[in-house]
Amino acid sequence: MAAVRLRLRPNDDSFYEFFTKAAENIVRGTELLTELAMPKADVQSVSERLVEVEHDNDALTHELYNRINSSFVTPFDREDIYQLGSQLDDVVDHLEAVGSLLYLYGLTSLPSLPREMHEMVAILDQQARLTAKSLPGLKAMKGLKDYWVECNRLENEGDRAYRMLLVRLFSGEYDALTVMKMKEVADELEAACDAFEHVSNTVETIAVKES
Amino acid sequence: MAAVRLRLRPNDDSFYEFFTKAAENIVRGTELLTELAMPKADVQSVSERLVEVEHDNDALTHELYNRINSSFVTPFDREDIYQLGSQLDDVVDHLEAVGSLLYLYGLTSLPSLPREMHEMVAILDQQARLTAKSLPGLKAMKGLKDYWVECNRLENEGDRAYRMLLVRLFSGEYDALTVMKMKEVADELEAACDAFEHVSNTVETIAVKES
Amino acid sequence: MAAVRLRLRPNDDSFYEFFTKAAENIVRGTELLTELAMPKADVQSVSERLVEVEHDNDALTHELYNRINSSFVTPFDREDIYQLGSQLDDVVDHLEAVGSLLYLYGLTSLPSLPREMHEMVAILDQQARLTAKSLPGLKAMKGLKDYWVECNRLENEGDRAYRMLLVRLFSGEYDALTVMKMKEVADELEAACDAFEHVSNTVETIAVKES
Fold it and tell me: Residue C12: exposed, middle, or buried by beta-carbon count in 10 A (0-12, 13-18, 19+)?
C-alpha cells in the first residue's frame, strides 16, 4: 500500500490540505474504475489498487478526525468538517464496492459491459475531477456555486443513465442471475453519484453560512 | 408545464401557504398514480403530467428556500421548515419514479397490476389527502396529533401491503424479469409511504417544540 | 405477549435501566434468530416470539420517550438519548424482519440455509451480547471504547460475510426466485449489522462529549 502522509501543521491549512488530498485520491479511484470497465483490464490488479485507494482514504479521514478533536479553532463548523470528511469517505467506499463486485461476480469476463454502465463511470470521473478542482476553493470561498450547480447537474445525468441501465438490464438481453449481479453494481454506481452530490450539498451549506 | 406561482408576502403566511400548496400538488400526484394504475390508462400522458407535478414542486421548494434565506424571522425553526420542504419534495420524487418506472418497464401493458400494488397506491392517496387537510393546521398548531398518529397508522398498513406484495411477486406467478421490474416499482411505492411518515415526524417535532 | 415493565424512578437511573433492558431484549431477538436458522425449527412459534420481542421493544422505547419529555435534567444530551433509543429500535425491527421474511417466503423449508447466512446470524448474536454487556458502562463511562472498536470490527466481518453470501446466491446454486427471496433476507441481516454499529457510533459520540 502506498503510504499517504498528511502533515498536520498547527495552522488551519491542514484542513484544506485534507480536502484536497482526499479529492485527489478519489480521482485515482475513478481513474481505476475507468480502467476496470475496459475490456481485457487486469481485473485483479486494478481492484487491488482500488482497495489501496480506500485504505489511503481511511488513513486520511482518521487524521482529519484527530485534527478536529485536537483543534480549538476550526475554519468552519466542526460538524460540517466532520460531515465533509465522512461524505468523501462514502464516495470512496462506493467506488471500491463497484470494483470488488465486478471482480467477485466475474462480470469483467463478459465481452463488454452495458453502454450505460460506461456512461455512469464517465460521469463519476467528471464529478471526481470537478470536486478535486473545486474543494481548494473552500479556503477563499471562491467558485463554489459553479461547483455545486454542476455537481448537481451531473448527478441528474447519472440518475438518467441509471434508469436507462435498468431498462436495458430488464429487457431480456441478459439472464436473470446476470441481471441481478449487474443491478448490484449499478446500485453502487448510483450511490457513488449521489455521494458526490452529498459532498457538494455540504459545501453549499458551508458557503451559505460563511456568506 | 402549468406555472405555479407562490406570492411571497412579507408576513409569515407565505410559509404556511407553501406547505398547503405543496401538499395540494402532492394530492394531484397520487390522483395521477391512481389513474395510471387503472387498466387502459393513457400511460404516456399520465406520466408526463406526473413529471409536471414534480417540476411544480421543485419550483415551490426553490421559492421556499429563497424565502427562508431572506427572512429574519421564521414562524418556527429555520431548519425544521427546510426539512419539511425537503421531505415534501422527497414524496413527490418517489411518486414520479413510480409513474416513470411503470411506463419505462412497460408494466402498464400487463392485463392488471397485482392487487397489493393498488392497495399501496390507495394508501398513498389517503396519506396525501390527510397531509393536505392537516398541514394548514400548522398555523394555529391544531389537529396535528391526529394527523401524525393516522399518518403513522397508514405507513404501517403500507408496510404490510408491501410485504404481501413481495410474497406474491416471489410466488412464481410472474417470470423473474417481471418480478424484478415490479420490485423496483414496489420499492418506490414503499419509499413514498415512508416519505409521508417523515413529513409527519417533522410536524410532530415542530408541534412538540411549540407546546 | 409478555409484558415488559420499566419502572421510571425519579432519578436518572431509569435511563441506564432502559438501555440495559432494551439490549437484553435484543439478545432474546438474536437467540430466536439463531434458533430459527436451525433445520426443523418450529418456524411459526419462533417468528411469533420475534414479533413479541419487537412489541416489547416498542413499549420500552415509548416509555423512554415519555421519560425524556418529562425530565428537566438528563444524564447526557437529550437528542443523544433519543437517538440511542431509536437506533436500538431499528436493530429490533431488522431482526423481526429477518424472521418474518424467512417465514413468509417459506425459506425455512429448505434443507438448509447458506453457510454465510448462519455466519451473519452468529455475528449479530455476538454484537447483541457485546451491546448488552457494554451499555451498562454508560453510567460510569467505562469500557466503552473497547465496545465500539469491537462492534465496528464485527460490522466489517458482517460486511464480508454479506458479500460472500451474495457471491454464493448469484453462483447458479439456486433458482432466480429463491435468490431474490434470500437477497431480501440478506439485506435485512446486513441492515441489522449496520444498525448495531450505529448504536455504537452514538455511544462513541456521547463518550467523546463527556470526556
Answer: middle
Average pLDDT, chain A: 91
- Reported as a single tens digit per residue, the pLDDT across A120-135 is 999 999 999 999 999 9
Residue B69 to chain A, least CA–CA distance (Å): 9
Average pLDDT, chain B: 91
Q: Is the per-residue pLDDT at C22 higher than 50? A: yes
* Residue C189 lies inside a defined structural domain of this protein: yes
Domain assignment present for residue B6? The answer is: no
Check CB contact under 8 Å for C176 and B176. yes
- Total domain count, chain C: 1
Contact A179 B181 (CB under 8 A): no
B184 touching chain A per CB within 8 A: yes
Q: Residue A139 maps to which CATH number?
A: 1.20.58.220
Q: Which of C34, C12, C52, C48 is nearest to C120 (CA)?
A: C34
Q: Is residue A34, in this structure, part of any structural domain at all?
A: yes
- Inform me whether the C-beta atom of residue C69 falls under 8 Å from chain B C-beta atoms: yes
User: C176 and chain A: CB distance < 8 Å anywhere?
Assistant: yes
Range of the domain at C105: 13-210
Mean pLDDT of the B102-119 span: 91
Backbone dihedral region of A112: left (phi > 0), alpha (psi from -120 to 50 degrees) or beta? beta
CA distances to B79, C6, C63, C93 from C3, rounded to whole Å, are 39, 10, 13, 18
Whether the CB-CB separation of A87 and A21 falls below 8 Å is answered with no
**What are the tens digits of pLDDT across the range A60-94?**
999 998 888 888 888 888 889 999 999 999 999 99
Interhelix angle C78-104/C43-70, rounded to 10 degrees, is 170
- Could you report the predicted ipTM of this complex, rounded to two decimals? 0.85
